Amino acid sequence: MASPPALADILREHQSAQLETKRQTEQLRKAAVRDIGDLCDTATTSLSTQLTQIMENQREIESLSRDCVQLVQQHVRSTTKWTKLVDQFNGSLKELGDVQNWAEVIERDMLDVAATLEVVHASLNPPS
Question: 4 pLDDT exceeds 60?
Fold first, then answer.
């Protein structure tokens, strides 16, 4: 018959198994800490890249906004100038209309004067 293992042998096997379990647990813990660190680094890098892109986009938008404001101001100035020119043109057209009306009145008056002179001339020099 085989003799049962001695208590000391069982204790040594148990301690050896426990030591191996602790070693594996420590390896797994270190791997988990390393993986979590890598995950944090990756997330931080990604967020940093995205934040940098957002800040660049914001600067670009602010620059475009300033350019747009300048263009709108230029447009307002140009529109104001054009409005003044159109108003001056309308005034000139009214003046031309007034001159034309004045010329027509003078022409009618001159025709009346000419007709009157013809009548006076005809009455002073009757046909013989």
Answer: yes
